[in-house]
Amino acid sequence: MTAELVRGQNHTLPQTRLEIRVSAGTPVVAGATLGDERGTVRGIEWIAHPGSPQLPGLEVSQQAAADHRLAVDLEALPTGAHRVTVLLALPVGVGGPVRFGAVPAPFVAVTGLDGTEIASFTLTDLDAESAVSALELYRRQDVWKVRAVGQGYAGGLAAMLADQGVTEPAALAGTIQEAVTRGLARSVAPPPPRTPEGDRVRHATGSADHRPTAPPPAPEPPEPLTDPAATGPAHTPQPHTSPGPAAAGPSAAGTSAGGPINYAHPRRQHAAPPSPPPTAPPAQPGQPAQPVAGDATGWSMDERLYNQIWGMFEDLARAVAAYRSAVDFAESRMDQELDRALSDPRNRIGGAGDRAREAARAKRDELTSRAQEALDRDLAQLTAEAAVVEPALPAAYAGWGNPVWHAHRIPMEIPMALRIGDLHLPERTDLRIPLLVRLPLERGIWVDSGRAASEAAALMDTDRLRRLAMETAVAHAARLLAVYPPGEFAVHVIDPAGSAAGPLAPLVEAGVLAGPPAAGPGGVASVLAHLTRRVDLVQMAVRARAADSLPPDLDTGEQLLVVNDFPHGFDDRAVTQLRYLADEGPAVGVHLLMVADREEASAYGPILDPLWRSLLRITPVADSHLADPWVGHAWTYEPLTVPPGSRVLEQVLAAVAEARRASGR
User: Fold this and answer.
1) pLDDT at 83
2) C or N: which end of the chain has fewer Cβ atoms within 10 Å?
């Protein structure tokens, strides 16, 4: 039976090989320190964090994530270590929450390797704190116990490390945050959290984790801004917020108190309760419920499908995490039983040792078989769901091969998200989950044209790989143009050496670019100066609440800058302007889509590291480089490709051009 601890309470641990599971609802940094009998941390070699995730008997996650699994072997800790303190902190400088009072209460559980909970603790009553000592495992008279701590620190990670007795805590905190920032650069942005009322219907009944979490707090009211839609037809970009409770779907306000749900939607002028999701046909006795497209709640079918896809992504991540954990436990248990059996000299001769080995392997095989059965059951259900969902997707969520693109009409309002690829795990490579990014884009995209991107890229000719990278960028630009209302999205292209004329031909021939592709230093400087001026003017207008004071010649629609072969043709001033656009542009509707080989940009040194980290890296060929925000799996990214011989890209761009002519834009 699980011991549900409150702050200060302790509980005896029945075993020494453990997992500490963290569920926070938002990406957090997880680490741990070792302490001696007095609780003193002897040095940085006794601290496990994303930049140094492994110590003897202790392993933590290498990146910030909403869920963590920390592995602990108390018998393998360094000599003199009598205490393990689990630390949580919010990442800084990444645009996320800055205090625990603004996020759901973190939940921490100590479990056995088989997932059985021993003790749990929900960290409530946090407010301005950005770091917290969650719990500690400590040894008292040769007995290990767990104590719920919940000590928060408004001074952040540095203050918490200083309280642990760490020398130079600020420097170490900076090192940890730098490692976290690098990890977040490869992580898929998590979707807005789903409240219990807004969660999708879960048909799978396998081994996916279901942990109790405290309901999220009601979203704070946003700062009032001038609504340009009320002053005229022109659209002025508003500052984008990171995904959160107010970003999409019903608000959680009132949920924790048992009151009615507030269905006020920040992106709609007329609030109304969302229509109920479709219901699955009744299941036969003993059979799982049949999946149905759009079984998550939302304001529209698009929103329900968006939430359903993210639910599938999360279910697959957790199901595979449970499977891998069970297999690791089976292997560990077999090793322990073999060690015990062979430590007895009497079992080293005759058939006793062989029988012990056979028994240990049989138990391992039985546990692994059970885990595989649970995984197969979950994967079969998700595969059936994917088969139902894929044909029902709107164009923005669909691949190029989906017939919905042939009947696509340019919309009058933007969708919630855009599909930029597919993701899969090695346990089931044919189960593909669409990778959706929210619109308007909250971070730029970098298409990696380097040969070191993956094994497939390393075997490919350099020129072919660069062409594929640029074709990928063109296809994404076309998708963005196709899902925005006419005149609400403009595409600028920088091609300093003119080497991308072939891949750019569909955009140029359709006449959908804001201007000819810019070439040479002069062209680069002109486009960057134009977009930098636009960012400056819109920022000033938003801050002054004076949207009507913008120059009449300023295009207030969303802008996309496609940069080919960076950093060729960029001087120091141009590099600075590009970094400025990457940092400040998304908040006011200017976005980057870069095609570059990072190794070729190494001549600039670390000055470009913040730029690369601010972009979502994708590849023109399959590559295992993206991580999920829950358990940190390395997912294989598959780019979207136009079917061979298909003219769908040209048809879509022709429809964009025709819609612009019809609207006079």
Assistant:
1) 92
2) N
Extract the tokens encoding 132: 């917290």
Q: 287-298 burial by CB neighbour count: b if 16+ within 10 A, else e?
A: ebbebbbbbbbb
283: confidence class by pLDDT, cuts 50, 70, 90: low
DSSP-H helix ranges across 107-208: 156-163, 169-184
Which among 380, 416, 379, 410 is positioned nearest to 397, based on CA atoms? 416
Q: How many CB atoms lie within 10 A of CB 661?
A: 11
Q: Tokens standing for 361? A: 């392997």
d(CA 466, CA 499): 10
Closest CA to 92 of 150, 163, 155, 13: 155
The separation between CA 256 and the C-alpha centre of its own chain, rounded to angstroms, equals: 26
Model pLDDT for residues 204-263, shown as the tens digit of each residue: 333 333 333 333 333 333 333 333 333 333 333 333 333 332 333 323 333 333 333 333
- Name the token pair of 7: 């702050």
> How far apart (Å, rounded) are the C-alpha atoms in residues 220 and 236?
23
417's enclosing H/E stretch is strand 417-425
Among 248, 252, 192, residue whose Cα is nearest residue 220: 252
pLDDT tens, 12-22?
A: 999 888 889 99
**Three-state secondary structure readout of 495-530:** CCCCCCHHHHHHHHHHCCCCCCCECHHHHHHHHHHH
* DSSP states along 438-505: ESS-SS-EEEE--GGG-HHHHTS-HHHHHHHHHHHHHHHHHHHHHHSPTTSEEEEEE-TTSTTHHHHH
Task: Please state, as a whole number, how many other Cβ atoms lie within 10 Å of the Cβ of residue 143.
Answer: 9
Residue 269 CA to its chain's centroid (Å): 29
- Residue 33, helix vs strand vs coil: strand
The Cα–Cα gap between 592 and 581 comes to 8
How many other C-beta atoms lie within 10 A of the C-beta of residue 125?
A: 11
Closest CA to 617 of 66, 311, 185, 309: 185
Where does residue 87 rank: exposed (0-12), middle (13-18), buried (19+ CB within 10 A)? buried
Q: What is the rounded distance in angstroms from the CA atom of residue 437 to the CA atom of residue 455?
A: 26
* Greater pLDDT, 373 or 219: 373
Query: Dihedral through CA 648, CA 566, CA 535, CA 664, nearest 10?
Result: -30
Go through 581-599 and write b for each residue having 16 or more CB atoms within 10 A of its CB, e for each that does not.
bbeebbbbbbbbbbbbbbe
What secondary structure letter does DSSP report for 49? B
The two counts, helices (H) then strands (E), for the chain are 11, 21
Token pair listed for 74: 């108390």
- What are all long-range contacts of 507-512, with beta carbons under 8 Å and residues at least 24 apart? 507/474, 507/477, 507/478, 507/653, 510/650, 510/653, 510/654, 510/656, 510/657, 511/657, 512/481, 512/653, 512/656, 512/657, 512/660
Contact 637, 622 (CB under 8 A): yes
Per DSSP, 602 falls in state: G
CB distance 242 to 96 below 8 Å = yes
Amino acid at 655: A
Q: What would the two tokens of residue 630 be?
A: 């829950």
Spatial separation of the C-alpha atoms in residues 654 and 660, rounded to whole Å: 10
Q: Where are the beta strands (DSSP E) in 81-180?
A: 83-89, 107-112, 117-122, 131-140, 143-153
